[in-house]
Structure formats: C-alpha cells, structure tokens
Amino acid sequence: MKIVDLSEMKQIEEKADKDYGFSNELIIENVGLRGADFIYDKIIEDGQFGEIACLIGKGNNGSDGLAVARYLKNRGLSIRAFLLFPEESMGPQVKKQLFLAREFGVKISEFKNLEQITSYFTQTQEKYLVVDAILGTGFRLPLSNFLFDVITTANTYSDVTVSLDIPSGIEGDSGKISSCAIRADYTLSIGLPKLGYFMGSGAECCGTIKVLDVGLPKILLEEGDLILLNREGVAKSLGKRSHFSHKNTFGHGLILGGSHGLCGALAMASEAALKVGSGLVSAATWEKNYPEFLSRLNTNEVMTGIIPTEGGEKGVQNILRDLMQYQAIVMGPGMGQTDKSREIALEVLNSYPGPVVVDADAIKVLSVKKDSEVFYRRKGPTVLTPHIGEFANFVGEKKSNVLEKPVAYLKRFVDQLNCCIILKGYATYLGFPNGKTVVNYLPNAGMATAGTGDILAGILGGILAQLKPQNVKSGLFLDKNKVYDALSLGVMIHSLAGKKSLEKEGSRSMVASTLLKYLPDAFLELDEENDDWRNDWIV
C-alpha cells in the first residue's frame, strides 16, 4: 500500500471524479459508513459509553465527521455534534451534511465558549468517546488559541479518541505540530495513509492507524515510491522450505563484534541469525574479549573465532581467513569504536563481495565524508542500520534536520552510497537503490531498550545468508528485489517478535533477549496467511 503526500491524494481524488465519476460527495458518504462501522464494531461495547461527542470543523473534515455522526445515529447510538465554527462560515458540503445530521436526529450544539465543552466533559457521563473532525490533512501551522484550548480539553477528558484522516493540529505532509494536537487512539485514514502519520510528532499522535476503503478506484491506489510495509506483502516473500534441504542449503553467516562489556550484543546478534533460519552461523570478536564472549553465548550452535590483530591468535581459529566461505556478514554489534574496528570494517567492505550488514559501532567508525567511494563501488548488497542519531553523524547532518525530512535524507544518501539504509525509529524507513522507500510502522515502547538493534542486525544477516547470488565470487544479485524483500521480511519479523514480546512481557519488563524467544511466533504469524492479517490496515 502506498503512502501519499497531500498533492498526490488531491490528484487521486480529482482523477476519481473526472475519469470515473466518483465525486467527493460519494467519498464523504463512504467515510461516514465505513467510519461508523469501525467505531461501532471495534470500539463500542454495551454500556461502555453514553453519548458520543463529535467535534466538527468548518472544512471537509467536518463533513466527514457529520457523516460519521449520522451513520452512528442510524445504528441507534446517542450522538452530539459540537459545531466549533459559526454555521454561516461552513462550506457547502458541511452545510449539506449538517442538514442531514439534523434530519437523522443527531444532537447539534453550536460552540459558545470553552466552559460549555468543559462542563459537558465533566458533568454528563463517566466515559467519553470523541470523534475528532476539526482539522484535516490540509491544516497549516500555527494553531489558533481557540483551537488550542479545544484540543487540550479533548485530550484531557476523552477516554477514547478517533480522528478522521489525521489528528487535528498535525500537518499532513510533515507531521509537525506547533503547540498541541489531538492525541488519537485511532486514526481512520481516508483512502490511503498520509506521509505525516510517520514523521515528526505525527507518529506519536496517530495511535492505531486504519485505512478506510472509501470506494476509490483501485487502479489509482497502486503502489508508488513510498510504501507501507504490511504482513501480506512480506509473507509472500517467505517461501517454503524443502524437506530435502541440509545446513549448507541455508547459508553461512558471519557476525563480527563484541568488545569489553559489550559481548552480549554479539551473542544476541549471533543467536538471532540462527533463529531466523541460517544454516550455519559463525561469530568472531577481539582476542582479548574471546573468553567474555563465550561466557555470554547462550547457544552451542554458534561457531566462534577471533578477529585477527597483530598480536597472534593463540590457537583460536581466525575465521576471517577465507571470507568466501560466508554468504553474508554482519559487523558492528558491540564492536567498539577504535582504529582497529575501522580497519576491519574497511577490509570487509573492500574484500568481501557478498551482502554486508553495517550496524552500530561499524557505522560509527565510518562516514560518508571519508568512505562514500568504498560503499559506492561495492557490487554486492550493503545494508546500513542506523538510528536517527547514528545516521545524522554518519552523513554529517544535524539530527533535527533529519528528523524533519527523514525520507528526503534517506533517498539522498541511498543514491549517493548505492546502499540499502534502514533508518530505525518508532517509524522505520527502508531505503532501497531502486528508488523505493518502505515504511514500517509498528511502534512499541518495549523496543526502546538496549540490544534490540543488535537482534535486528542478526536477523537481517541470517536472512541474507539464505539468498543465492547469481555469481558467488562477485556477490551479484541480478534480481535485487529479492534482497529488498529479504530486508523487508527481516524488519517485519523483528517487529512481530517485539509485538508478541510486548503482549507477554509488557513494555516495562521487555528486554532485547526476549525477542529471541518470540521469533518463532513471528514466523508462524506470517505462515498462517489468513484473512485477518491480510487486511491488517484496511477496514
């Protein structure tokens, strides 16, 4: 499913009207029907709420809100619509929907003062469900003082808030807010998800996002360059395993990292690579840290060795002697930010032709300024996995600038480096050299803990090791989409394991290693391929 900015969405709606006769009025009706169905079927429980409050603006968003109010009323619910602006200032579509709402028995209250709404929320019932239809995606900063007060009041007293198309106070393209915005529990996106959901404060305010199928022609909704990652698309790339396979069928991955006090990162990454199906996994650390690494390793299946240094090897296997025995290499988890780390990272990038995942400390010892040519001339897939701060330092930009325009920065440096970049955060962006950017949006407070990035790196390395390039010596993949699909699969598996861990452990008690426990559940969820998740985003 593609993600659109406001101009793209406007073009789709105009084309739907001009070429297919699908008018804005029809969209409003379908928003009303689909939105009401979602609220009634997914949120309402018997006796849970009394009267439902709809906050109505004067533009198209207000029209949608009144249509939802009408259809909820037709379901037998008690509905009150607060008109936040004088009726005479409203557009023609809002006036039409207002007429229909009155005819259907929706209670209409014209806004008088803030005390009116405050009294309503404090005196009429115990629990409140609020439908936010104040401002749409076309809102531009700043927010007026009047709406600031209304939105603050709604955030204070609402128990469940449903925003239509976007939480009021958020810019649709940038995700920016000025003073405040509605903090929605659910955002019902009209037609397609908007870019602002996944950027800036938008990602913090949208809650659970559901896309309403409002009847727009499917041909106009086909994928573009910015795509929302979903389980249906990922599951298709999972494939089945032959019963007649052996360990070498599924590749040999190498994980490089570990330093004093950080060997746990290497251990978790190595175990993750095994748990996603890599046939063989080797792990190497610095000679002086080798005993510490062994003490942290919780599985007997990982083969171990050392990263070579000038001091000799003391009988421990140097598993970097023959890089060609590996089908993928991960470097960085707990590796340390030393000159020797940089030397090894450059050696791998320059000497190894296959897929390389550059994570954590390996990113920190490299930079675009010094090493762009090294990345660009590699023929095999190179994958960088920075969080926002690491990315900003790596490319030499301010973190605030990257946060403001993550997609633009991602595209720029994917092109400059000819690399895949996975920019981690509550919304994770996957940038690919084919011009596509994929957004993974499964925010999880429990994932904000040390080590989850190491597990992601291991997952990616383990999955990449299972791919077969057309030419082993060159590391070339003629069909690079297989690589991009594999990376999307890895990110989704990581998120689903986190989701299951959150359900079982809770956000406070989750630690990174719990993700290892639930990786099988993540694969099973994808293997099921049932209608429930096939329509995960669409209602």
Please, what is the CATH homologous superfamily of the largest domain? Ribokinase
pLDDT < 50 runs, ≥5 residues:
311-316, 530-534
Strand order of the largest sheet: 8-17-16-15-14-13-12-9-10-11
Helicity, as a percent range: 40-55%
Major sheet details: 10 strands, mixed
| Rg, nearest Å | 26 Å
**Which class of secondary structure composition applies to the elements?**
alpha/beta
The end-to-end span amounts to: 13 Å
Helix-strand blueprint:
Layout: H1 6-20, H2 24-43, E1 52-56, H3 60-74, E2 79-83, H4 92-103, E3 107-110, H5 114-123, E4 129-133, H6 145-157, E5 160-164, E6 186-190, H7 202-205, E7 208-212, E8 226-228, H8 231-236, E9 252-256, H9 263-275, E10 280-286, H10 290-296, E11 303-307, E12 328-331, H11 339-351, E13 356-358, H12 360-364, H13 368-376, E14 382-384, H14 388-395, H15 399-404, H16 406-417, E15 420-423, E16 427-431, E17 437-441, H17 452-464, H18 481-505, H19 512-528, H20 531-534
Helix pairs in contact: 2-3, 3-4, 5-6, 9-10, 9-17, 9-19, 17-18, 18-19
